[in-house]
Amino acid sequence: MANNIFVPMKLSSILGINARTQAFSYKVNTIRGKKTADSKIQTDRVLTKAGIAHPEIYKKFRHPKEVASFDWTHLTDKFALKPSRGMGGEGIIVVKERLELSSWLTTQKTKVTVEDLKLHTLDILEGAYSMGNVPDVAFIQEYVGRHKCFRKYAYRGTPDIRIIVFNKVPVMAMLRLPTKESGGRANLH
């Protein structure tokens, strides 16, 4: 039983995303709390302040000139490029292997170059992947691989667990598994 990570549940004990949003998110969260939760950069600050382990942010880009002046060749062999206010996994490039000094292989098995990363970062800054298509912050984050126990359940991407906290008490959690249909993204949508 220790190797089985899935425990059967009754359908009535599962809270769907729409019910969760209506019952909890809209009614009880402050505007400030929603803005923090919607921003990966602000969430990083909260987690850091609380001493909670999470992937390190290597670099933040707020302006196009930062994209041009950054030395992309000094990136690690594995990393993720993300929009701060993205949703549904859109706009995320996850790199798992360096091919040459200025090119890498993504988890989608496509080659990306420094120029590809620069253009993608500029798209993020313009708001191409943000909620409401408003200007955003791009960042490069530590790569988090998939634990071996998830290999047979997750397609390519990294699963994660979302914990819902209500009045500072964890009340529920959900396991997000990447699927072939989602292109290896661990989404709820």
From TrEMBL:
InterPro entries: RimK-rel_E_lig_ATP-grasp (IPR039523)
Domain Alpha-L-glutamate ligase-related protein ATP-grasp: 21-189
GO molecular function: ligase activity
Record's keyword annotation contains S-adenosyl-L-methionine: no
Keyword Ligase: yes
Family annotation (Pfam families): ATPgrasp_ST
Keywords: Ligase
Protein known as: Alpha-L-glutamate ligase-like protein
Organism: Candidatus Woesebacteria bacterium CG_4_10_14_0_2_um_filter_44_9
